[in-house]
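Hey team,

Filing this mostly as a record. A colleague (T.K.) asked me to run one chain through the structure pipeline before their review meeting, and I want the input and output archived in the tracker in case anyone asks later how it was produced. No errors, nothing strange. Just documentation.

Input sequence:
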Amino acid sequence: MKTQLSALILLGSVIGYAHAQGEVYVCMNDSGTKEYKNTGATKGCKRVDLQGVTMIPSPYRKPLVQTVAARTAASPAGFPRIDSATQRARDNDRMQILLNEMKTEEQKLANLKKEFNNGEPERQGNEKNYAKYQERVASMKDDMNRAEKNIEALKREIGNLK
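Output structure:
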């Protein structure tokens, strides 16, 4: 058991050592500052001897910042263009539609709150069974929550247009 464990540890360290070894080069750039690289293909680079130091190469990461070319990419030749006056008119129409939807949702919420009567709506004739009444009250709560969330979403959308 002890020899198997020793062999496993030795194997793991050899594999880790073989994987982690790499060459490091120190290079001088045009401004005279030192740069450390893992390739020495450029002129003026010298290999650095790092005895006893192991390196693990970092994985490639996509840059977080977009390049200027990516942000200013031209539209395809046949892509339709819209003048600013037309876009402004469309944005105004969209704003009016959102405002109308919000007004409708606010009116719906006001009606639901009035009918809800602070958690004690009037019982209807077909609700002789108390469970039916509780189902309707729960449904009314759900409808009010949904209307409030719709209003919040519409306010966010309107805020994004301004």
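Quick notes for T.K.: The two ends are 72 Å apart (CA to CA). The longest helix spans residues 84-116.
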